[in-house]
Amino acid sequence: MSSKKIICGILSATIYIEALEEFDLDKIVVSASGFEQEAQSNLRNIILIDKEELQKHGYTSLKQALERISVISFVDSGLGANVDMRGQGSKSNVAVKVMVDGKMINVLDNSHGVTPLDSININQVERIEIIPGGGSVLYGSGTRGGVIHIITQKSKQQNFQIHLNTTNFDRGALGGNLGTSMTYNFNPYLTLNFNAQGFNKKGYQKGYSEKGYFINAKNIIDIDEYNTLIFSYDYFQSKDTSSGYLTKNQIQSDPTQRGDSDKITKTIRPALSLDFTHQFDSNFELNIQSFWQNQKIDFIKSVSQMMGTHAYEDGSGFEDGLRGVTLKARYNYEENSYFTLGYEFAHHDAQRNSKVFYSVPPIITYHRMTTLMDMDKQSHSLFILDSHNLGALFLNFGLRYEYSLYDTARTYRNQMAGRILPFPIDTTSRFDTHKTIDNFAFEVTPNYQYSDTGSLYFKYERGFISPTPAQLVNRNNTTANPTLEPYYTADLNSEIFDTFELGVKDFWLDFYTFNLTLFYTKSKNEISYLGDPHSAAGAWWRYYNIDETRRMGTELQLSQIFDKLLLKQSLSYIDARISKGINKDKRIPYVSKVKITATAEYNLTNEWFSFLDLSYLSRAKDNGNVDENTGKMQNNQWIKDYFLTDLGLGYRKKNLQISTGIRNLFDKQYYSYQDSFKNQYLPGSGRNYYIEFKYAF
C-alpha cells in the first residue's frame, strides 16, 4: 500500500468513529516568555509534547520523540546526528538551541560538536516545548532555527515507580533499560525527586551499542509561600561502540553488517544547578539560576581507514564545560500585561585533544599528528521583554544586547619519518587568539485575538549567530609555502538573520485545533569554509564571511478530538537555498523540503489504548564534493525519501502500565547519513519491537 493511501485512510477514518469518552484536556503551561504561563496566553505557535504522550508511545530517548515532529529533522554530516529546524543543515548544532530547565546544552566546538540529547533521561521529562524559528531576545546566539526547551519533573506528590523497556530488532539485536524513580516528602517544606536508570542498547548495525546509566536528583525546598529553592544534580555516563560507514553496495546488500572502523568512546556528563524563585506579590516575580555542567568524551579505541591504511586516534578526546548565572524579573503592571528584565552570564570553554597516528611502510615509517586546542567564550547579556495588552491586540517587544570575549590557544605537533624524507621531522606550532564581539537582537510581535479562541500574529525578529572560537583560527598551507606562518586570525563577523513570520491559531467547534505559520528568514554574513584539514598535499583551511542564505516555508499542525479518538496531522515545507556567493541558488545540503506526520490515538476501553504514527520525509541533497580552493559545491547527490510507520498497544489500570509496539512496521530502508562523494553511508533503524512495563507503588 502506498504512503499516500495510508495517510488518507487515517484522515478519513474520523467519520466512522462513535464518541464514548472524552479526552483529558488539562491546561498546559509554556515558558517561551521566560516564565511559566498558560498555553493560551502565548503569542506564538508552539508545539508541546507532554509526559503522557511520551509514556504512551514508549519512547526510550528524546531523539525518538522529536523525530516524529514535522518541524524537526536530524542532520548527520559525519560526526553524529544534530537536531534541526527550519533548514539549518550542517549548521544545526550552532543554529538550533536546546535547553533543559533554562540551561543551554549545546557544545562550543562547532566543527566536532553534537548536542548531547542522549544525556537527558526521558523518564524525568515533564514536557518538551518546541519553538520554531527564533528566540534570540530570551536565549541569545544560535536560535535561527528555533529553540527546544525540555522541562523536567518537579513533582511534589509522593510516589515510587519502577520501569523496564526492552527493544529487539528483526535481525536479533536485543537491548533495553531498567530504572526506578521516586518522590519523597520529608516534610511540608522539603521534597526529593530521584531517578536512576541503567541502559544497554544494541544498534541496528553490527558493532553499535550503548551501555551506561543516568542519575537525577532534585531537592525542592519551599522556604515559605513566597520563596522556593530547587537544587538539581544530574549525572550521565555511557560507553559506546561503533563500526563506522558502509559503502553503497554494502548498505544495499546488508545494512546491518559491520563498517570500516572500530571505535569505543566513553562519555561522562555531570550537571548542577541552583534555582531560586521569590514571589514578592501576585504581580512581581524574581528568578535567579546558577548552573555548572561538564561533558567529557574519551576515545578509548579508534581505528579507521585513511590513505589505504589504518589510522589510530586512541587517546583523543573532547571536553565541554559551561557555567553561569541568569537573573530574571517579571512585573505584571496591568491585566495580561507584563515586563521582563534579565541578565545572563555564561562562561563556555572546550578542549580538543586530537591524536592521529598511521604508517605506510616502507614509505612512511610513522606519522603522528597531535592537536591540542583550548577554546573559551565568556558572554554577558542584558535583555528586556514587554508584552502589552491593548484589548484584542497584544504587542510583544523585546531587545537583547550580548557582549562576548574569546580566547583560543592551539598547539600542533607534527612528527614524521620515512623514505620520503631525508631525516625525521618534529615540529611544534602554537597560536593564540583574543577577540571581542558584541551583538544585539530585536523582536516585535503584534498579536490580534479576533475571537475567544482564535488569534493572528506577525513577528519580525533580528537575531544573530556569533562565531565559535574554533572558527576564529585559520591555517596556511605551509607544505606548499614553508615561509608562511602556520596559523592566523580569521576576521569574522557574526551571522545576522531577519525573520518575518505570520501565524494563526484557533480552536473550532470544541474539537478541532488549527495552527498555521508562514515564515521567511534571510541571513547575512554566513560563515563559509575553504580548504582541507586532512589534505595529503598540506593541511589548510579558511573561515570567512561571504554567503547569504534564505529559508522560507510553511508549518501546519491540526488535531481533532473525539470521545475516544485523538487525531493529529502536521506538515512542514522548507525551501532553504544559498542566495549569494559562488553557490548561489543551490539547495542547502541535508535539508528536506517536506515532512508530514500523522497520529491516531484510540482508547479501546478505559484500560486499553492504541496508537498509529506515520511520518514521511522527502529527499534532500548531500554535501557532494566541495572545491577546497573556491568552496563551490559539486556532484550533490539525492538522499532518498522514506516513509515510516509505528504501531502500538497499551494497557493502563491504576498504578500499572504495559505498552508494546512495532517501530518501522514495514521495515523501510533509509539512510541516517550519506556522503556519496566518499561513498560513505549509515543505515537508519530497521523494523524493531518494544515492550515496556511501569508500576507505581
List keywords for this structure.
22-stranded antiparallel β-barrel, mainly beta, five-stranded mixed beta sheet, 5% helix, 697 residues
In a nutshell, what does this entry contain?
The protein has 697 residues and is mainly β. It has six helices and 40 strands. The strands form eight sheets. It has a 22-stranded antiparallel beta barrel. A five-stranded mixed sheet has the order 3-8-9-6-7.
Describe the protein.
With 697 residues, the protein is mainly beta. It is built from six helices and 40 strands. The strands form eight sheets. It has a 22-stranded antiparallel beta barrel. A five-stranded mixed sheet has the order 3-8-9-6-7. A two-stranded antiparallel ribbon has the order 1-2. Strand 4 (72-76) and strand 5 (81-85) form a beta hairpin.
Largest sheet: 22 strands, antiparallel, barrel
Number of strands: 40
C-alpha geometry: globular
How much helix is in the residues? under 10%
Task: Provide the residue-averaged pLDDT.
Answer: 89
**Tally of separate helices:** 6
Structural category is: mainly beta
Unreliable stretches (pLDDT < 50, length at least 5) are 1-26
Radius of gyration: 26 Å
Residue fraction in strands: over 45%
End-to-end CA span = 44 Å
